[in-house]
Sequence to fold (870 residues):
Amino acid sequence: MSRLLQLADLHGSLADPLLDAMTFLNEVTGRYPEAISFAPGRPYEEFFDPADIPVFLAEYLGHLREERGLTEHQVRQEVFQYGRTKGLIAPLIARALAADEAIEVDPEALVVTVGAQEGMLLVLRALCAGPDDVLLVSSPCYVGVTGAARLLDLTVRPVPEAGPDGGLDPAALAQAVRELRAAGQRPRACYVVPDFANPSGASMDEPARRRLLQVAEETGVLLIEDNPYGFFGRSGAARPTLKALDGDRGNVVYLGSFAKTCFPGARVGYLVADQRVVGPDGARSLLADELAKLKSMTTVNTSALSQAVIGGMLLRGGLRLREANEPARQFYARNMDTLLAALDLAFQHLPGVSWNRPEGGFFAVVTVPFRADARALDECARKHGVLWTPMDGFHPDGGGTHQLRLSCSYLTPEQIVEGVRRLARFVAERLPDGA
Amino acid sequence: MSRLLQLADLHGSLADPLLDAMTFLNEVTGRYPEAISFAPGRPYEEFFDPADIPVFLAEYLGHLREERGLTEHQVRQEVFQYGRTKGLIAPLIARALAADEAIEVDPEALVVTVGAQEGMLLVLRALCAGPDDVLLVSSPCYVGVTGAARLLDLTVRPVPEAGPDGGLDPAALAQAVRELRAAGQRPRACYVVPDFANPSGASMDEPARRRLLQVAEETGVLLIEDNPYGFFGRSGAARPTLKALDGDRGNVVYLGSFAKTCFPGARVGYLVADQRVVGPDGARSLLADELAKLKSMTTVNTSALSQAVIGGMLLRGGLRLREANEPARQFYARNMDTLLAALDLAFQHLPGVSWNRPEGGFFAVVTVPFRADARALDECARKHGVLWTPMDGFHPDGGGTHQLRLSCSYLTPEQIVEGVRRLARFVAERLPDGA
Fold:
């Protein structure tokens, strides 16, 4: 008879509803396979073809042999063996960052990570050293960040977004930093997604980005900029990232992901950390080097195989990804247009129902005059065949109880229209007057 | 001018020599490319061919289409998208475990991880919840474990091995548990490599394994069994793993790795955790489910691409790996024989120099009458062209200062013979009489 462990004896994060929420997000789709799902923040998958994988791999191997002049022995080593903890394809990523985002950075300041998630974990671990250290997060916030903080027993302080479409509020960050310091705590870093945030869909305009950088400069709080959706603006015009605006001033650690611009199954992301670190003996390193030391304790290396395939995709795209993603951008932009038009049609005359108008990305938020929780979701899926994500799990200190997140990335326009129709029936049923 | 961070403000692990030791292990080879290196615990790489990767991938895709009956849409989803946090190939791994190790386990009790390293991190995090919780480790110990513990700020208590060839001493574990409890601490788990341990090369015989399981049963301390080298015995005869001996009694969490039996660049490992966990409401889950929740905060998924390639290798090997690894076993066995013979020849008449006689695996340990530290290593590499690993970094509470680890996995027999010759010249130089 197998041993019984008490949940109460295991790490506290496992009894935290937050982690259940994340598991729930990952697996809810499987529970109602026939439902139209606005739940997962997944890329549309008809862009992918398994037959491309050997092609991308061959492209990267050709690059190693021809451009880098590696012998067959070295090629074998690169793909099959343990490699540098910082990763293999940092030089290719640095060139793509320069072309796509005007971010100029030494490849040595990059660490290739197992998705942006590992990058978050490493950055949080390095920066938050003791019980007085505090991580600030935009609120609502991606659960991957608050979850990683929970795993490390960190203290998290939410900073509100400026209205339904405004993104993180720089003045609110400055205020939170003052309050924390007055209480004897050390605000260390602030996590923010300036473009089409998950879950809110909100974006910061350029003046707000500049004000945020100024707050970081003045307070010494590092900004952790996460940018998974930046290519996918509805208008096609892109705003500069915080990292690009900051240049080499070191106020920003940048997290990048290939999950949406290449594919999630590779699990390849990266971080840019060009801050200098000085030890007690005066020796200097890059923050990236320190983060790589931590990575040797989490995953040792990012899959060399995955890096080779992503490297091949970068090479085939001419070491820039934005153009290669233009068909995807148009697809997602049309989906968001479709979603917003469908919401207008379904809800514009319903009192108490409102929604925001994201400028791009995968997500929009609908506010309803009833509790939109896991129980409501389950009923909605069962009775009306449509899935969405409750917003309460994205609020570290409560809130979002009457909001639901709709993701439009994974569906066709036809599915979006039908999905909103079904959602409207569910909402109508729940309204006080039954309208 | 980029921002300057003080190392003292970052997490304490970054100022710990342990993490430098790990980085050092990974990168020392690059510093002396011409030296013969007994340092890295890498598999021999002439077994690998990049042309095999598309073949393995095709094998797995064929399995999805034909045996599992997936549509092209589902195949695409499996390889490219986010997937179940527990992983895709757990059913294939479970079948290989049954064939290779007589470990019978429900695939639902498996989590596919980014190498065994991520498995360690997850298990340590789940089991060590508070400041009184203690992780016991065999001493000397693999730095990946003590490093992961440091990253999580865990308390580590070393348990000595029983002599140079004996592996972890069960009586010493029982004693350590008593002492910890008497001091008001909670010993939670004990990390052990029963077969050909890294770094000592020592193995536990079957009676010792049974005694260890009895200590676990009596004290409630979970055993974390790590088994990267188990296939590579010199005699070919394999001892049963702790997990196989324990059956379904739940005293063991088993960590597996494909780094040595397939290849490191895939970064695919797994854990088996069939313990049942009961919550305050009486709800039950498997420990594997709880560990998967933590994984959603570290890496979300293990690379689907890497899992597909490893899955293809498992399928091509008839869902067993031991036979497919017989040529590798013979290669490593011959290397270890060669190493031990060369050590006999070089050192048998030198007073104060001794070494152990591992029954297999990648590592042996030489004891010398002088400090075998990083400085000695650097001189040895520079003057004599041979690299090894100082043992002091593997001792959590000091020790090993006069020992060096030799890894024979990555070299040819000819290189081993020449390497030991060079090492003998270095040692002779350092002996008191200059002999």
Q: What stands out?
A: The two ends of chain B are 56 Å apart (CA to CA).
